[in-house]
Amino acid sequence: MTSGDGVRCEVTGGVLRVTLARPDKANALRAGDMRVLLHALEDAAAGGAVRAVLLRGEGRNFCGGADLVAANAPGGERPPLGAMIRNLSATAHRLVRTLWELPVPVVAAVQGRATGLGLHLALACDFVVAADTAAFSEPFAKRGFTADSGATFLLPRLIGVARAKQMLIRGVVVPAPQALKWGLIGDVVPAGELAGAGEELAAELAAGPTLVHGLTKALISDHLGADLPRALAAEARTVELSLRGEDFKEGIRAFLGRRAPAFTGR
To answer: What is the DSSP letter of 112?
Structure first.
């Protein structure tokens, strides 16, 4: 599994654990860090041992966003017109989309700050468990530019247009308890329990019916913009597929035997 000096990746027990590891920089992501993270996620998407992903940050913060200091170091040449569009497509935007479309469930364990790209990485995951001291923010407008990496797609769908504007235009910082009430995240735990809660949820998901998890993720994503007939047709197709899997057979055997199923992800 690929790792770098800013991102560590390891697979054990069916869980890919990705740790953002630049704590002195609030785990801000450079282009190279994004590429390492992308390669790890794309390897997971290709199949094999990974049945769930746990995304976490080292130190006090989850992720302070993209490392704008490194990207705009003095002495660099002004990029040509269109370079930003190409760069975003190959790095931050590709990363958010990969998380969103990954065919295995993804858990983000968030402490401290989740800012800009860091927030969007968490929101592109399927489950966000946050420490009660965590905070979520969108710094773009206050720095004089518009949001990227999925902000204007993710926020309105999760918390509604009015609250999305509070974050994206006014730059309102949302503490974890408020984020839970808004529906921005799914769980809040005491800060000292965050690591264990993230591991426990990732292990639960890794022990589940992996194919079914992936199909369900795809249906939910597709149906955000679908009408009911299209949604029903897609559900029929995926039910047909999931019923042919080994996990369905095991689920029925476990139900009849009144025991917990032992899913294999097949």
So the answer is: S
